[in-house]
Design brief:
Layout (H helix, E strand, L loop, with lengths): L1 H8 L14 E4 L2 E5 H4 L5 H10 L2
Antiparallel strand pairs: 1-2
């Protein structure tokens, strides 16, 4: 997903290692997706749609 984000949005995604299976996508300080909240990993398409909706 990081490579796709970099290619499509010309950004440098940052992986912040943590513990406990936390997986969150944050853009400009806003939470876009939380695995903990949703109970699953996101589909790439889902993340791109949410980012596009923010424009």
């Amino acid at each position: 997903m990081a490579a796709e984000l970099k290619k499509k949005y010309k950004v440098n995604p940052e992986l912040i290692k943590g513990a406990g299976g936390v997986f969150e996508v944050v853009a400009d300080g806003a939470l876009i997706f939380s695995k903990k909240k949703e109970g699953r990993f996101p589909e790439h398409k889902e993340i791109f749609e949410k980012l596009e909706a923010r424009k």
